[in-house]
Amino acid sequence: MTVLGLLFGLLVGLTLGLLGGGGSILTVPIFVFMLGIETKTAMTMSLAAVGITSLFGAFGHWRQGHINTRLALLFGAFAMTGSFVGGKLSRLFSGDVLLTVFGVVMLMAATFMARGRGNSDEERPPRSVSVMALPALVVGLLTGLIGVGGGFLIVPALVLLGGVPMKKAIGTSLLVIAMTALSGFAGHLTEDANIHWGLTALFTAAAIIGTLAGTRLVPHIPQRTLRKSFALFLIVMALLILYQKRAVFLGT
b vs e for 78-113, b when ≥16 Cβ sit within 10 Å of the residue's Cβ? Predict the structure, then answer.
């Protein structure tokens, strides 16, 4: 389990560093299906690991000038509120239903990313605060509900609504993920939470190494390639999740 935790942690970190999201989409299934962690516990552990890892990744992108700090703090403030509430509400729903809805939302986000514009390196004027507030709250709510960082929605929102170039959206997303994931973790955490702290620390350490490596690769990859890769990644992961939870649709 120790070796697997290290390898999977590296993979999650690399994904976060390269794409600004997707790490926690991998983390929850890895904890549940590969490492045998109970679903609710896995969601709580995922939020802790992804939140800390994203903070390290955000620092690397900040050094490269790939973070819109003002937008990150604005988006993150609304998202943190939704994330904490989502964490409290998560115990009211079954994991199967939440993951099924999550898969559908991922497909929608992938469609917007694949069809939307925003491949330019030039930053466009952002929309008003009121326009950004609702997507931020929705992202935060999903973050808290099912234990993910929400980068798969944050990046499209920053590109399409915030007028942020893809590379800067990735770095900005990591800062927002750190804020929302740690807020969601606080919402999930209870006195009877059976968190495997040793495994979480090991996984997080490996993920930090992976995300720093991914951060270094971003400047050498074209904007369009990053964008299309992100959309394709979302589609593949969404289809896998929906296939796993097909019983929800079939009623069995």
Answer: bbbbbbbbbbbebeeeebeebbbbbbebbeebbeeb
Q: How many angstroms separate the CA atoms of 70 and 213, rounded?
A: 25
Encode pLDDT of 11-43 as tens digits: 888 878 877 766 667 787 788 878 888 877 888
pTM of the model: 0.77
Phi/psi class of residue 22: alpha, beta or left (left: φ > 0; alpha: ψ in -120 to 50)? left
pLDDT tens-place string over residues 64-119? 888 888 888 888 899 888 888 887 887 787 777 777 777 787 787 677 667 654 44
- Other residues' Cβ atoms within 10 Å of the Cβ of residue 199: 19
Structure tokens at 81: 């509120």
Whole-number Å distance between alpha carbons of 86 and 105: 16
